[in-house]
Amino acid sequence: MSSPFFRNDARTAGPTGRSGFFYAPTGPGTQSGEQYLDKEAFMHRAFIINLGSVDHVPVGKGRSYQIKDRRVAVFRPREDEVAALEDECPHCRCGLADGNLEEEVVVCPEEGHRFDLSSGAEQEDPDRGVRVFFSWIEHGNIYLQYSPYIVIDGIVTALQ
Fold first, then answer.
1. Cα radius of gyration (the chain)
2. Are strands 149-152 and 155-158 parallel, antiparallel or unpaired?
3. What is the rounded end-to-end Cα distance, in angstroms, of the chain?
């Protein structure tokens, strides 16, 4: 059965081959039974966003992208690799996209806090960090898996 809120075809399959990503919000006006998704469904549904050519992010640098009401910093540590983090330092609220890349770490341009590109964890305080977004390069473009929801202790929460 086809739903206006899910696409289950090869065009939405990510690099792992999974398909059926959530790509539109549910809410008023949806068909009966489609207003709510169970927790397991939310955890595996996301928007897949084409951010454009990989050439827009030079090797060894970062660039900020506005996605809905959030900023995402995309970094290109190597020619064939990208990493995406929330573009806001939790300490000073500055943009991390302007920070320096040092191997697998981005350094906050204002206060020098260091964040791991793969986990988002701050090196000085691993319990504090920034959100990481799954991202990849395909056919010369950068793709980002973005979800307006996060799961904390098994509870699905909408990002504000």
1. 17
2. antiparallel
3. 32
DSSP string, the chain: ---TTB--SGGG--TT-----B-S---TTPPTT-S---HHHHHT--EEEEEEEGGGS-TT-EEEEEETTEEEEEEEEETTEEEEEESS-TTT---GGGSEEETTEEE-TTT--EEETTT-BBSS-TTSB--EE-EEEETTEEEEEE-SEEEETTEEEE--
Encode pLDDT of 102-142 as tens digits: 989 999 999 999 999 998 999 998 778 899 999 999 999 99
pTM for the model stands at 0.68
Cβ 2 vs Cβ 125: under 8 Å: no
Angle formed at CA 150 by CA 52 and CA 116, multiple of 5 degrees:
65
In which residue are the tokens 């399959």 written? 13
DSSP class of 84: E
